[in-house]
Amino acid sequence: MELKLFNTMGRQLSTFVPIREGKVGMYACGLTVYNYAHIGNLRSYVFEDIVRKALEYCGYQVRHVMNVTDVGHLTGDADEGEDKMVKSSRETGRTVWEIAEFYTKAFFRDFSLLRCSMPTVVCKATDHIQDMIDLISIIEAKGFTYSAGGNLYFDISRFPDYGKLALLDQQELRAGARVEVDQGKRNPFDFALWFTRSKFEHQVMLWDSPWGRGYPGWHIECSAMSMKYLGEHFDIHCGGIDHVPVHHTNEIAQSEAATGRTWVNYWMHGEFLLMGHDKMAKSAGNFLTLSSLTDKGYDPLDFRYFCLGAHYRTQLAFSFEGLDAARTSRQGLMERMAQIRGESSQTDEQPAGKALEYLNDFETHLADDLNMPRCLADLWTLLRDTEVPAAQKLAVALRMDSVFDLGLGHAKEEQLTLDDEAKALLEERRMARRAGNFKRSDEIRNILRGRGIEVQDSPQGQKVRFAAGQRMEKTVTSEDDRC
Ligand SMILES: [Zn+2]
Known about the structure:
Layout: E1 4-7, E2 12-15, E3 23-28, H1 39-57, E4 61-68, H2 84-92, H3 96-113, E5 121-124, H4 129-141, E6 145-148, E7 151-154, H5 170-175, E8 191-195, E9 215-216, H6 220-230, E10 234-240, H7 244-259, E11 264-270, E12 273-275, E13 278-279, H8 290-294, H9 300-308, E14 316-318, H10 320-343, H11 353-367, H12 372-384, H13 390-404, H14 420-434, H15 438-450, E15 453-458, E16 461-466, E17 476-478
Parallel strand pairs: 3-4, 3-10, 4-5, 10-11, 12-14
Antiparallel strand pairs: 1-2, 6-7, 7-8, 8-9, 12-13, 15-16, 16-17
């Protein structure tokens, strides 16, 4: 199966061809660990997880590398403002190292709650200072740098391809149209490789280097660590679309200046999650975390489903109505899967006939730049088709779920242990419905709801599950209630 992916470099769809047969090297920019990830950040990680799982679905062995930024990322991406870690430390009274550890753990907890596969390599910036110094030394030896005001800068005028990813206008670059904030720079688009004279008195993370005691600029970590773990030329680099004009542009300039060749073949970027009309951002103060959703009773996978409902290259507006709809759909999927499991436990059926057609549709839509909304629609059509046998549905749905990863394999029809009183109420309700006494039937439904038990009527009888936004873990059906 051939995947067509949208490459930000060149702005076109192209067939994915790996550098080494059967293998993919993939780098994803990780989080700056000075605060919790917001759900806009998490949308990017879900997107990258889908990229990885789609590649694995196609049979590739994926080496997935992700960094953790624990030094050098200023509040502005272009060297302006102050170090985010230092700021957070001052505001909370904790050390930068404590903050980094705390938010790194919190981030990976969210990551696994969303069923994102752990990267093959997770690398911390502070563990790779020497690699960054080595890379900067190469860039310096090749004549791409200058020192000013105590800092070492990358000179973009020495790199003619500067801005090719973001299609930055060359004239504008020469004129230096951006607001000047750093007096040491010859051109405002030049960027720091190493800060030796800190603008900030409270910087506590400092290392010795050939340019003096200091700390690295933000962009250099991704170049140094990706090349260390994936080589000087690798397949895919992903991240949020906000990284295109500055961070990824600067990563490319310094990496290709160092090696003199193409660094990455495919650039993939996930679009924003919007709050109202604005990008969700910590700086704008309009952000939600995953735990703020779970505190309201949502399952983390409701958010995963919500993300899959939009193509990764389209902006997605967050709303609780949208999240509610995702929750209802996801729970519906789990219930159907549980039902199918009740009818067949075979998962190794070879798809044939109509089931195979649905699987082919799914693969066509997956191959078309990872069109998740269409892929989800294929799953629903399969599950609703009454002509496809349960064993076939189960086998195909589980194959599809190796990409969605909504945990469909965990949907089970188990017996819910009800106490005698609840059983008696259910029986009374069944008799009331049979007698046409719907008033009493509704009363009993409310009594049970008050005890955390939700009753639904289906053609198979009364179905019972734990109420109010809980993951559907158990269902029981009282068989002979057919009115
Ligand atoms: Zn990066």
